[in-house]
Design brief:
Layout lengths: L1 H5 L9 H12 L4 H8 L4 H7 L4 H16 L6 H4 L1
Length: 81
């Protein structure tokens, strides 16, 4: 814990890094099965307990869905020529 004290961190537990790892993996496209493999979890339920998506990431996912479903189709450039 010398590193934690030297960095003057309060209320820090190395175990918390497992949550960060799971969340960053999920936000970068890793599947639940891949995250389970990295963290050594035996169940997907445990992976879901560790994975916390940021509000920004969740908003971007919804925006991509909206764009895919409701965006105005762009005319094909080759067909216009």
């Amino acid at each position: 814990m010398k590193a934690v004290a030297a960095a003057e961190l309060e209320d820090f537990h190395f175990h918390d890094l497992r949550h960060s790892c799971a969340s960053y993996l999920a936000m970068n496209g890793a599947t639940l099965a891949e995250i389970a493999e990295v963290l050594g979890h035996k169940t997907l339920a445990m992976v879901q307990r560790y994975t916390h998506l940021t509000i920004g990431h969740t908003s971007a996912v919804v925006a991509r869905m909206n764009d895919a479903l409701f965006a105005t189709p762009q005319p094909d450039k080759e067909a216009a020529q």
